[in-house]
């Protein structure tokens, strides 16, 4: 009962799983738990939009808000994207283990505080890939912050290595990290009704450490139904103690997430209702990234004689009307542009406009953006999608470029405030924007691949501009405190307006380590008034300084000279110090929450 999940397929024409239920054991005080896996479910907001805020407190509050909405719908389990055992690509996972691990770990921690069990992961690319060091580090960081969180692999059909690199990691997870939580496997389609194939699928799932499995169809015919039952019976090929361990992992996640003592309402499951994220405006305010501001095009100003023209290309048409209304509420004159034809001359209102804001949801708008920008007006493009590899053939023709991530209800007023200068931009890119030209080293995270190839990206990881604030950094100091580093520096706002900066600390890897030249090891958002200076100290633990040693089950930092760098983004490190470190060793056990 504890190690199988009941699943309801999504209604046609959609594919996949709609509702997942862990039946529980009511007579033993273990409640049934449900999770909805449908688009629009609370908890499915864009991971990149949240990561772009670099705000851990906001991420935790997002998790708490999602927990309230999830439990109100009779559910108590939620998938947490942006991190997981299966790679889902940079557009979903981000590209840095520290940023993804801390931010999504805070979301999961917020869910747990609201008595919702988070599962890191979801749909990814299963297969024979090894667990990359970056993905392993991200999981370690996130699981250390969210005690009780589980992991989730969602696949089409259970087959070879269904959880990818988790296969063979059981010693690292259970003995090294002392991770006692559950690993769930959900399949969109039933396991083939062929005895050798089912036995092979069962062994593959167990090799990946799977504790709970679910697939469409009757519970008894599921892989973890009759097939598992026969495998653990007398003379079977799975020892009964293995089933005991699997059940214990499920119970530990339920206990640590608080769902055993605080079971969710389990009445009739209500259909998902439109969910308006109460923190959507705050996420937009902190996560929108200003990438270009040539000719000081921002802040915008519109007058009745020359209003700001807003053009919503394609699917962004509805968002354009929202932004026009919001601009009006800021006191600026604005109006919606007429539809532009696919081909042919631009309408007169577009051709004659002095300031044009173009909302774009995808590359299908490139021809229109190029035509408008080539017409001579001041053009600001607002990107409303999570595509770090988008080509921008029109980039040199436009004056302004804003990355606003996937459009979210409630963001119109904040976007308008940013465009007219009533708020300043403070978001920083959580992924490298490649312009479609990435180095051929897919096993490395984005900025590390560019670093190693000595190629400049279109916009680097951690990048983001301010309109009126200007930040400088004071002397950088690094000292060793046991197995961690203490990094101290100052930040000053020398601009004409208050602003929020995100100073970032990077570690230069030692020669011959096999690593990319540098990695992010810390950051700290800070809000400063004009002329204000603040002094900051960041602690960097051994996990970020070294590598995992699977033989000794610990984090190891080889002795050597390391560079510690400080800057506004990964390609602009303006302060650096060198520090010699001896051989350092840190235990692999997950900490009781992440500090710093």
Question: Topology, please?
Answer:
Blueprint: E1 4-9, E2 17-22, E3 33-36, H1 47-51, H2 56-72, E4 77-80, H3 90-93, H4 97-113, E5 117-123, H5 133-145, E6 150-155, H6 170-176, E7 183-187, H7 195-207, E8 212-215, H8 223-232, H9 240-256, H10 280-287, E9 289-293, E10 308-312, H11 317-329, E11 334-336, H12 348-351, E12 355-360, H13 366-373, E13 378-383, E14 400-403, H14 412-420, H15 446-453, E15 471-473, E16 477-481, E17 484-493, E18 499-501, E19 504-508, E20 518-523, E21 526-528, E22 533-540, H16 542-545, E23 547-549, E24 554-557, E25 560-569, E26 572-581, E27 584-587
Parallel strand pairs: 1-8, 4-5, 5-6, 6-7, 7-8, 10-11, 10-12, 12-13, 13-14
Antiparallel strand pairs: 1-2, 2-3, 9-14, 15-17, 16-17, 17-22, 18-21, 19-20, 19-25, 23-24, 24-27, 25-26
As for the number of domains, it is 3
> Taking all residues together, what is the mean pLDDT?
89
CATH homology superfamily name of the largest domain:
Glycoside hydrolase, family 3, N-terminal domain
Q: Report how far the terminal alpha carbons are from each other.
A: 40 Å
| Beta-strand proportion | 15-25%
CATH topology of the largest domain: TIM Barrel
In the CATH hierarchy, the architecture of the largest domain is Alpha-Beta Barrel
* Top-tier CATH class of the largest domain: Alpha Beta
Task: Please list the strands of the largest sheet in the order they lie side by side.
Answer: 3-2-1-8-7-6-5-4
Instruction: State the total count of DSSP E strands.
Output: 27
Helix content: 25-40%
Helix/strand structural class: alpha/beta
Oligomer: single chain
GO molecular function: hydrolase activity, hydrolyzing O-glycosyl compounds
Pfam families: Fn3-like, Glyco_hydro_3_C
Domain Fibronectin type III-like: 501-570
GO biological process, one term: carbohydrate metabolic process
